[in-house]
Every structure is written in structure tokens, then in C-alpha cells.
């Protein structure tokens, strides 16, 4: 007879174990040691008044909890500074940068107040063709959610408050389905929109959907020719010197997978340790 726990029960037990381990590590200050050698770039999308339902919609309460945790327990810096550390091969000690994708109106209406309360900088990757429109995305329609986008005035306000604005293409294009000329057009037009509407030339580009695809190297080369200093994916994982030579990995925050940010930190530490093992293995092979 099997005595295995049902999947939901196993999930709750796993969350509880991570929660306890995370709190012990943070209380003892040991998490800093385990995070050495990596940088953490987290990604949010929409911040809502409704409960969190995954990585695309984070409740404002959960967002506040994560921001409090970041401010109290991790060295938070701008995304540009993290990119600089990675590209200059400076020491990495678990520095964290906050990013947002798409350009949802609630980023300005709800997230901004929380960020300012905890004095945290963020980078907002906006799909410029969505701003000031009623564009309804397929993923929001599937969740029975109405897409709401920022006005250009709201985007400008984020920049004036010291936050960075980056490109997420014009139409949130799936670059894996486009040819080189179409990719170049999406990026060039997004640069022009941001300069014309808020007077900013974006330094960073986040790939829509956050996944790798067969022509990714071509897309990166196009972004570099257009002057972008970095290209980001959003598949989870920690950035380090070795794996950030071509693109920067970001970690989408899904509060539904953890009891609190302490549990999330355990998975981040696990990834940092896996990176070090891969680095050691690679060095031994050389």
C-alpha cells in the first residue's frame, strides 16, 4: 500500500520546508554567503488589487511583501548597475534588480507607491505600441482579464521618479516567428517611440515571452547594432559572469509558489549553488 502524500499536500510540505530553511538562513545572515558569485534580476508584470494568481499578476500585498524583503535582506541596485557589474566582471554578491514587463497601467498606479515606500529602483520594459491603447492580449483574454496599459504621461512619470525605461518591442512580438528585418523594425520603432514620447533612448531590451528561440543570436546582434547595452530573457535563474555573455537571465516572481519570499530565496540559493558546481565542472574539464 502506498503512503505517498497527494500532490497538493506534497506541495504544501515542500513550501513549508523552504520557508523554515529560508528564515533560518536569513536570521543567521548565511544567505549572503550562498549568493556570492551571482546576481538576481527579478521580473514582475501586472500588480493587482486581486490575489496573486501566478507570475503574470502579483497582488499589491504580495508585491509589498517581496519589496520589503528585498529592501531588508538583499543589496538592491538599478538594472543598469547590475549589467555593468556583469559586463565588467566585477564581483557579484547577490545584488538584486527589479524589472517589470509589458507596461501595465497598475505599474504606475500601484507598484510605484510601493517601490518609493521602500526606496527601490526598478526598470520598466514597455511594449510601446500598447501604451494609451485598448489592446487586449491573448494571455489576459485567456485569464478573463482586461488589459490596461499606461499612458505616456505615466511612463514619463516613472522615468522622472528615477526609474529606468527599457524596450519590450512595439507589439510584444514573438521574435522567433520574425525575420531579421522585422526584428530590426520592432526594435528601431520602439526606440523611436520612447525618444519621441518621453525623450529617452532605451539602453536595455527584454525579449517578449522571455524564451530562447533558434534565431536568438541574430536578434541579439540586431539589438547590439541598434545600441542596446543588454538583452534579457525571463526563464528563471541567476545571472553570473559566464551565463550573461550573450543575454541576462531574469527570475519571474510567482508568489503562489511560496509561503513568503523566504521560501523563494531558498530556490535562488539552490540555483546559485548549481551555477558554482557547473563552473567548477567546466574549470576541471579545461
Kindly describe this structure:
The protein has about 290 residues and is of the alpha/beta class. It has one domain: TIM Barrel (Alpha-Beta Barrel), CATH 3.20.20. It is built from ten helices and nine strands. The strands form three sheets. Strands 6-5-4-1-9 form a five-stranded parallel sheet, with helices on both faces. The N and C termini lie far apart (about 50 Å). The relative contact order is 0.17.
CATH topology: TIM Barrel
**Beta-strand level of the residues, as a percent range?**
5-15%
**Could you tell me the number of beta strands?**
9
Which structural class matches the secondary elements? alpha/beta
Stretches with pLDDT under 50, minimum 5 residues:
1-6
Helix content estimate = 40-55%
State the distance separating the first and last CA atoms: 49 Å
Rg from C-alpha positions? Answer: 19 Å
SS field, number of helical segments = 10
As for the number of domains, it is 1
Rounded average pLDDT: 94
Name of the level-1 CATH class? Alpha Beta
Q: Largest beta sheet, briefly? A: 5 strands, parallel
Name given to the CATH homologous superfamily: Glycoside hydrolase/deacetylase
Could you say which overall geometry the principal axes of the C-alpha atoms support?
globular
Strand order of the largest sheet: 6-5-4-1-9
Following the backbone from N to C, one meets helices and strands in this order, namely HHEEEHHEHEHHEHEHEEH
CATH architecture: Alpha-Beta Barrel
Amino acid at each position: 500500500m502506498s503512503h505517498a502524500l497527494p500532490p497538493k499536500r506534497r506541495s504544501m510540505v515542500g513550501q513549508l520546508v523552504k520557508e523554515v530553511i529560508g528564515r533560518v538562513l536569513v536570521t543567521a545572515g548565511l544567505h549572503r554567503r550562498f549568493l556570492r558569485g551571482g546576481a538576481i534580476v527579478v521580473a514582475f508584470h501586472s500588480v493587482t488589487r486581486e490575489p496573486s494568481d501566478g507570475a503574470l499578476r502579483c497582488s499589491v500585498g504580495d508585491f509589498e511583501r517581496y519589496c520589503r524583503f528585498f529592501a531588508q535582506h538583499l543589496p538592491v541596485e538599478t538594472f543598469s548597475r547590475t549589467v555593468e557589474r556583469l559586463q565588467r566582471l566585477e564581483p557579484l554578491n547577490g545584488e538584486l534588480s527589479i524589472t517589470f514587463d509589458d507596461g501595465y497601467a497598475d505599474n504606475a498606479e500601484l507598484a510605484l507607491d510601493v517601490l518609493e515606500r521602500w526606496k527601490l529602483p526598478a526598470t520598466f520594459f514597455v511594449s510601446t505600441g500598447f501604451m494609451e491603447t485598448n489592446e487586449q492580449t491573448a494571455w489576459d483574454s485567456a485569464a478573463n482579464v482586461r488589459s490596461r496599459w499606461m499612458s505616456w504621461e505615466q511612463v514619463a512619470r516613472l522615468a522622472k521618479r528615477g526609474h529606468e525605461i527599457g524596450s519590450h518591442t512595439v507589439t510584444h512580438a514573438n521574435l522567433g516567428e520574425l525575420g531579421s528585418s522585422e526584428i530590426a523594425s520592432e526594435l528601431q520603432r520602439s526606440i523611436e517611440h520612447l525618444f519621441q514620447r518621453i525623450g529617452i533612448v532605451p539602453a536595455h531590451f527584454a525579449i517578449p515571452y522571455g524564451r530562447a528561440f533558434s534565431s536568438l543570436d541574430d536578434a541579439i546582434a540586431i539589438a547590439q547594432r541598434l545600441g542596446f547595452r543588454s538583452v534579457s530573457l525571463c526563464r528563471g535563474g541567476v545571472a553570473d559572469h559566464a551565463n550573461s555573455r550573450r543575454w541576462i537571465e531574469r527570475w519571474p516572481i510567482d508568489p503562489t509558489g511560496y509561503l513568503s519570499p523566504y521560501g523563494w530565496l531558498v530556490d535562488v540559493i539552490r540555483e546559485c549553488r548549481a551555477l558554482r558546481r557547473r563552473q567548477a565542472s567546466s574549470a576541471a574539464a579545461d
